[in-house]
Automatic annotation (TrEMBL):
Protein name, as recorded: SAM-dependent methyltransferase
Domain of life of the organism encoding this protein: Bacteria
Lineage of the species this protein comes from: Bacteria, Bacillati, Armatimonadota, Armatimonadia, Armatimonadales
Source species of the chain: Armatimonas rosea
Statement: the UniProt record of this protein carries the keyword Transferase: yes
SUPFAM superfamilies in the record: S-adenosyl-L-methionine-dependent methyltransferases
Pfam families: Methyltransf_23
Annotated Gene3D superfamilies: Vaccinia Virus protein VP39
MF term (GO), any: methyltransferase activity
GO biological process, one term: methylation
KW Lipid metabolism (keyword) present: no
UniProt keyword list: Methyltransferase, Transferase
Amino acid sequence: MTTAQTAASYDQIAPHWAEESFNHENGIAQHERALRFAPPTGRAIDVGCGSSGRILMLLQKHGYDAEGLDFSTEMLALARRKHPETVFHHADICTWEFPRAYEFISAWDSIWHVPLEHHAAVLEKLCAALAPGGVLIFTSGGVDAPDEVTNPCHGQPLYHAALGIPELLRLIDRFGCICRHLEYDQHPELHLYVIVQKEVL
């Protein structure tokens, strides 16, 4: 699937993540862990922010000037309604260029929708957008080798891809970052999250 097709799928199911029944604690403990490695304040961006705004609110609570980015028109419409004071960018991370460096970047359950052939370039872009000492948290499939799959989600097709842990760690080092934490946080499900920090030269 292309990112445009995935965005169209999310347009159809955007309200799910904004409903009260959605677990708004999803990913919060993991972000709290990442924030312990990060600078105490600065600029932050939630890549694939979705409609709930829970990660944006956490970052703002910690004193960050936080922005959101998403490729789904409907996701952003809901997010803007709930957080009118927040800056949002409607864009595809594959082609969007970061306007500045950030002390904290979240890409929770988002960049795994990027086509597999673009994964390395997107990871490089995220690492390059970190300020020295900045922290990136992102999720991936906890697989050992590159893989991709399309499965239904709330009646819509959603594509997921992963480079595999060995390649992820190799690229993180190549892109000037250090892996601070790697965890299968929903074991036995293959849901992996990684915390990386930009080297301070």
